[in-house]
Amino acid sequence: MGVVMKIPKGTMIRSVLAATVKAFLMRTMVRVGQSVVEAIVRVIAVVFVIMSQSRHNGQAEYHGGRQKCFS
Fold first, then answer.
1. How many Å apart are CA 52 and CA 9, to the nearest integer?
2. Nearest CA to 14 among 22, 24, 5, 6?
3. For every residue of the chain, which 3-state class applies, written as one string?
4. Domain residue spans in the chain?
């Protein structure tokens, strides 16, 4: 034996539609935020790679100039 309530169809449609719109808007906002974070991480990764390559090249030249002759 269950409890049965008569709910107007319009009320049900409004509540489901409101939940759907909220979910869609939230998903859109999260996706935009995720895209911004991904772009920032890509820029940081590129800067890190460029800096590590320039440091590596600078150290190679520096060490090449400090060779000692043991003869």
1. 64
2. 22
3. CCCCCCCCHHHHHHHHHHHHHHHHHHHHHHHHHHHHHHHHHHHHHHHHHHHHHHHHHHHHHHHHHCCCCCC
4. 23-61
Q: Residue 24 and residue 53: Cα distance in Å, rounded?
A: 43
d(CA 25, CA 22): 5
Q: Is the Cα torsion angle 52, 58, 62, 64 positive or negative in sign? A: positive
pTM of the predicted protein model: 0.53
CA distance 39 to 37: 5
> What's the pLDDT tens digit per position in 48-69?
999 888 876 665 455 555 555 5
